[in-house]
Amino acid sequence: MFRGIDEVDWASLEHAYGSAADVPELLRGLASPLPHEREAALDGMYGAVHHQGDVYDSTLASVPFLFALAGHAGLPDRGGIVELLASIGGSGHGDVFGETPGGGEDGEHDADGDGGGPGTEDSGNDNRAMARAAVRSGAAVFLDLVTDGDPEVRRAVPSALVRFHGEPPRALALLSERLRDEQEDGVRLALVEGLGLFARLYGGSGAPAVDCLVSLCGPPHDPGLRLAALGQLASCALDRLPADLVPTVVALLHTRSQRIRPSREPVRTSSDTLIGSLRRIRPADEEGAQLLRTLHKALGARTADRIALLEGQLSGRTTADRCNAVWMSAGLFREWRGAYEEPVALIGEQLGSDEARLRCAAVSVLEFLFTLAAPAADRLAALVESRTDSRGRGSATLHRPLKALARCGDARAVPALAEVLRGPAVPNETGYTIGFLGAAAAPLAPLLRERLAEVPLGSVDTYDRAAPLLSGLGALRHAAAVPEVLRLLHGTPRELRLRDALVKALAGTLAAFGPGACEAVPTLRGLLTGGNAVAAADALRSVEGDVEAVLPVLLGALGPERDTGIRRAAAEALGRTGPAAAPALPALLRLTGSGDVWERTAAACALWDIAGDPEPVLPVFREAWRNPYTRGTVTACLVRMDDAGAPVHDLIRTELTSPRRHRARPGGHGSHDVLDDERLLRDCRTVLRSG
Fold it and tell me: Strands (DSSP E) along 377-510, which ranges?
């Protein structure tokens, strides 16, 4: 297996962390007789030699030895080696169906990464092309592995065979033949996936694969195989799906659940590796999860079908089916817009389950839905009151059902949050979460103030503890907390970690307090010449209304020598100043030609708020709309413009007809993407009502 390995100058090659001198040890570890050593070696290959999908010169040098390992009959865990080879060969390509290695629509694994290393530089494209060629050149090995004695190997091979073997008709014939003879359920499903991949990759030439899938969708085939075929058919030939797709799938799902057999997969090690961790968090019915994930992903924007399918799943008799449905819902909610009241209410029903895994899944989904979680609020409130799954007071994290309840704006969260604020330690999320409750959270303001008074002045975590409390106090406009804010402004040492960020947060809180913070005016005036001059000026305008005192500071911050972030903050502050900031108009007009889209957008918004002239503003908005991350800012300004923004209302109408959330992206998500999209939709509707 390792003939010639010592003749390679591994030390002169590189992987993600520098010299590849340790690669021979990793390769030999894949053949270790000890399971935990094999798992650690595979983890190391993904972590360094194939880091985040990158290909290095050491990756290329490893391919022949990986093929030798994969073809060595009797060696355990070769299925993982086949998957590694397929990933190396497919680096930079992904699946034609839009799949990306390591990611999924349901968001269980975030594929986003920061890249880095030699594999992402100019040589990276050449390396990826050579990796694909190297795997193709060795793909004959996959022909023999289709009938390997190890079911894990047979399960991993079909997709690799389809992707890389140079004779597609031979690969298709072999898949069809193995479907007739294969007895292992998991392998049969992998063969069906191979047929779907073949159909997607080869278009018209893949018609025989489509016909085969159609034949597998009906009796006498078992429910699992039929579900797999329907999922693959949806990915390559939607027009061949049965008209009664949803009731068919739900019935098959329920039948399969009654017949499901215990897994024959060998017990895995529980080593402390990434591979081990991923294996431990797999769904209880991983096969069922994959079947439904494939179908949901293929249905894409057909949200009505997907909602009906979810409702059928969530009404299933087994915990595993319902748990899978909850996780499937996450991808739907994050990526697509729709009427989700019914499935959200059904997810709320899962909070009453005796199964901790199911409750945890339901809370995880409801937590990122914010106001969309309202149909489940009664169940969340009951769970919070019962203290089921609750961490004790003083936990480092906020009780997740409580966070979900507060984020949907339900006042029943207030008593529990008060108890948290009275506890020995306040989780950092608490202050930020309170802001979603609006005026209902007013009784919490004195408690926030008390906790702010306890924040140490010179601790390494001063900012981390203070910022969330300041956010909550600002949201509640609790000006009685001015003395506690000033204590931090005056008392924190200049060398404090994140002191500038803390001062900015303190100034922002004073700005939220408005005229009630007049006691802070001398302090804010003293900050007008420092590094936080813009934040101080904005706060002083809000508290005192003295535009003449702050205008020179904000005008100076618009200078070309200033940082883009400072200019943007100054433009936003000038916009809040209104017509009294008219001297800033020439500088703001220049900023609408900035190379930074955020700066251009902020300047355009300020131009409208100061001068009320749409002519220089609307062209900037139309261009900025191409960036989904600036659409919320643009739409909020269009709300203020009323009918003056009518020339760009076509953008708004198009947005409202789009089924996809404006920040949706494959393989990843932001924690507030659903919230931001719902706010965008709300503002878009307001624009059209008023315009």
Answer: none
